[in-house]
Design brief:
This protein is of the alpha+beta class. The protein contains five helices and four strands, in the order ααββββααα. It has a four-stranded antiparallel sheet, with no helix packed on it. Helix 4 crosses helix 5. The longest helix is centred in the last third of the chain and has 14 residues, at about 95-105.
Length: about 130
């Protein structure tokens, strides 16, 4: 008997389909990153290529667990060093914000908990930035 490893791929349909505009929005968020950390009420510090903070996706308290690589070699991405939140939400800045909003609005802590949608995340960013 053999078993197969299958990974479920999530797909979303979004009202926001213009990738160029989404990239511009992400650039704006990164330019004003302090506003994002202020909204999620976490202390943060900036290094040469990375922002360190506690993970506001799962509500962690380790002040260096969430690493946002804003000046990365190939693209902006984040990594949660305690629970691997990026494995569930994805690694982009939009994914990070979506995870943080899910925690605030639905007390998200782990896969299976309620989440905000990608469209809700983009609406939030458009209204905030």
């Amino acid at each position: 008997m053999t078993t197969q490893n299958t990974k479920t791929t999530k797909t979303w349909r979004s009202k926001y389909t213009d990738q160029k505009k989404l990239n511009t929005l992400c650039d704006i968020v990164l330019d004003k990153i302090e506003n994002l950390y202020e909204y999620f009420d976490v202390r943060w510090s900036r290094g040469a290529k990375v922002v360190f903070s506690s993970c506001f996706v799962h509500g962690g308290d380790n002040r260096s667990a969430l690493n946002l690589y804003y000046n990365a070699d190939f693209r902006v991405h984040f990594k949660c060093r305690t629970r691997g939140c990026e494995e569930h939400f994805g690694t982009s800045i939009l994914s990070l914000v979506r995870g943080g909003l899910s925690h605030i609005k639905h007390d998200w802590k782990s896969p299976g908990d309620n989440e905000v949608t990608l469209d809700d995340t983009i609406d939030f960013l458009l209204n905030r930035f």
